[in-house]
Design goal:
about 100 residues, mainly alpha, 3 helices, about 0% strand
Length: about 100
């Protein structure tokens, strides 16, 4: 009866493939965290290291903060999208079961 149709499983596995998108974003973020950690002493020690740190560290901290926020946002948006699709499906099934053909 209803014309509303959403398939949560297809959202997970097909089309945009939300789960893969989230996994890819998390993988990219983790790779960037690792690279940042491995290059922590890139400026060396002494005056050169202090100069490097003063110019590099504030940007690094802002970038890492952005990556953490992006990971969280993508993960939450994905979960909410799948949950919303499930609600649409349940609503459709409830509507169909209460309306006689």
């Amino acid at each position: 009866m209803s014309h509303l149709s959403v398939d949560p499983e297809k959202l997970r596995l097909g089309g945009v493939n939300i789960d893969h998108t989230v996994d890819l974003a998390v993988e990219i973020c983790n790779d960037l965290y690792l690279a940042t950690d491995q290059n922590r002493g890139a400026g060396g020690t002494g005056e050169m290291g202090k100069k490097f740190d003063s110019g590099y560290r504030p940007g690094e901290q802002e970038a890492l903060k952005f990556l953490r926020l992006m990971q969280k946002t993508i993960g939450e948006a994905s979960a909410r999208t799948i949950k919303t699709a499930g609600v649409f499906t349940e609503t459709n099934e409830d509507a169909d079961s209460t309306v006689r053909p």
